[in-house]
Amino acid sequence: MSRVPGAALAPSRGLAAGGVLALLVLVEIVGRLGLAGPGWPPLTDVFGYVAKPSAQQLLGRALTATATAALAGFLLGGVVALLVAVLSALVPATGPGLERLAAVVHAVPLIALGPLLITTAGREATPTLVAALAAGFAVFVAATSALGSANDAQRDVFTVLGAGRASTLLRLQLPAGLPLIVDGLTLAAPAAVLGAVIGEWFGARRGIGVLLVSSMQNVQTDQLWAAALTAAAISLLAYVLLVALRGAVNRRFQ
Amino acid sequence: MSIDALSASRRVPVAQEGTARPSPARLLTRSLGRVLSRYWTVAAFVVAWQLWSWLTGYNQIVVPPPAMVFGDVLGNIGAYLPDLGWTLAMSAGGLVAGMALGTMIAVVVWSSRIVSGMMTPVALVMRSVPVVAMIPVLARVFGYGWFTVLVITTVVSFFPAFVLVGSRLRAAPQATSDLMAVLGASRSTVLRLLLLPHAVPGLLVAFRLTAPTAVLAAMLAEYLMGGRGLGTLFAQSVSFHEVGRAWGAALVATVVSVACFVAARAVERRGTVRFS
């Protein structure tokens, strides 16, 4: 069964590798020729910088801080969002209000939240909390629509058999909605990384975000690009991991 | 999903016409009840803020009470409007440019198998790159100025339009495509008459997703780089310890962001009805 799409995939894999390679070469050429000014270094210079032990130590420390904050925020935001979605499924009267609150909290711009969190929750906790908010919204939106995704016929069967809201939720809505919830998690993972980085802009002590802003201000272009590439790499890694998880869940539940 | 919601909302008034007309008092209580059921959490939020500023006894410099913040916004609206207008202009400019660029490149990708094969992985990589976190890099490349803010809002608006328009272009209704093929329509005619109208709902979804993000990105960029706009107003008020003004800027930014979301959703619903 998988042979036919596999055969079709082979040439497109070649094109895909070509596309990524073309992008890298383009970035290198623009930097080498200085087409975009001194702010755009050749990619090889950035990799040369990353190869230095001192740079690796600096990036490694920042990476650990950011990854920890992003992971903690992802878990915290995901769990809270799922609990709130379950609450609004069990007590439907709270649903519209909770959805509005989520939309409003999501709309509060991060520049407003950051300093607020710094004063109330402290420097260490701010990146985690911003990551949790960013990830939690994605999970909440996915989870509320996932819990509503069971079809009417199935619902009728549960009602006729006398199932309560809790057992309908546990035995019908959650299993039926799992693929959609995992879709939400796929969106939430890069959001958590982004949230952690932005949370660090407001005065954290270490992390990729701190490194980004301080290298921007001190015109350390190689370091700036290395930090940006690191942020992109962890974001991509989180995304790829969750896409793999989504594949596994879809095979099991569909 | 939105289409279901639409048809449901259209069905409601039809059902009501059959019943007796409700009295104005009942209409009022019903609409009040609806507002309450939707916004009780927002009201509870403001109450909690007030209680929090009383109970913790923080100095007003740390946590200003709601009255002080609302008072500053309403009393000195003139101090906010120019920056607000600037930020909105930057967001709107970037939004239009980014969505136009996204649509154009989606059409180019549709038209060529090779470009499509090359662009798809690049788009995947770019989509998971945290673009807003790249503001420092873009500021370094394009300089500290309004042009960079415009570049950032453009980049932020690009990907949703590119991805969603692209997927609509590939998912055209088979029967209509067959008909056009039988009638001997050229590729550009198919694109103009069938695919582009078919892609409009995708573009509308992209608009709803992007509009609040573009405003947020503009403000973050202004916060980091200075210049003009709400983000700069906020940064300056924080550094001069004008707490009421700072929280006021945050409040205005929140309201604008919610309003953008609501307006974009309304545009999407209207457009979806028109184009599907």
Overall structural class of chain A, as computed from helix and strand content, comes to mainly alpha
Straight-line distance between termini of chain A? 17 Å
CATH superfamily grouping of the largest domain in chain A: MetI-like
CATH superfamily of the largest domain in chain B: MetI-like
* Total tally of structural domains of chain B: 2
Q: Judging by the overall fold, what is the CATH architecture of the largest domain in chain B?
A: Orthogonal Bundle
Notable features of this structure?
heterodimer, A: 254 residues, mainly alpha, 2 domains, 10 helices, disordered N terminus, B: 276 residues, MetI-like fold, 11 helices
In short:
The complex is a heterodimer of chains A (254) and B (276). With 254 residues, chain A is mainly alpha-helical.
How do the helices and strands line up, and which of them pair or pack?
The complex is a heterodimer of chains A (254) and B (276).
Chain A: H1 3-33, H2 43-51, H3 53-90, H4 95-107, H5 110-121, H6 126-147, H7 152-160, H8 165-200, H9 208-217, H10 221-253
Chain B: H1 2-18, H2 24-55, H3 66-75, H4 77-111, H5 113-128, H6 135-142, H7 146-170, H8 174-182, H9 187-225, H10 230-239, H11 243-275
Helix pairs in contact in B: 3-4, 3-11, 4-5, 4-7, 4-9, 4-10, 6-7, 7-9, 9-10, 9-11, 10-11
